[in-house]
From TrEMBL:
InterPro entries: DUF2097. This is DUF2097 domain-containing protein.
Length: 99
């Protein structure tokens, strides 16, 4: 079942921090980049105010591990698909001024 919600960039960081677990699937579209992968690790650094994701990419040509600081790219995120078991949540990110 697919559900769609609209969040601000700051709310997306909070959502990932609170709702995404290890081995969930995240497909992140930001700027002109598409990053589909399985979550291997989520690490929050309150001192640096960062949220670091480690993803195992699920590409046909590239099957590597990538590290993303979600707080650095949050303003460029267009959409995130979060899949866990049979549920899929599509998060559309909007600017604070449009909310």
């Amino acid at each position: 079942m697919e559900t769609e919600i609209i969040l601000s960039a700051n709310d997306v960081v909070d959502y990932v921090k609170n709702e995404v677990k290890q081995y969930d699937i995240l497909e992140i579209s930001y700027n002109m980049v598409y990053v589909p992968g399985e979550v291997l690790d989520i690490e929050e650094d309150e001192e640096d105010e960062s949220l670091n994701l480690t993803l195992q990419l699920m590409g046909e040509l590239l099957n590597d591990t990538v590290h993303l600081d979600l707080t650095q790219i949050k303003d460029d995120i267009l959409e995130i698909r979060h899949t866990k078991t049979d549920d899929e949540l599509v998060i559309i990110v909007i600017e604070e001024t449009l909310k």
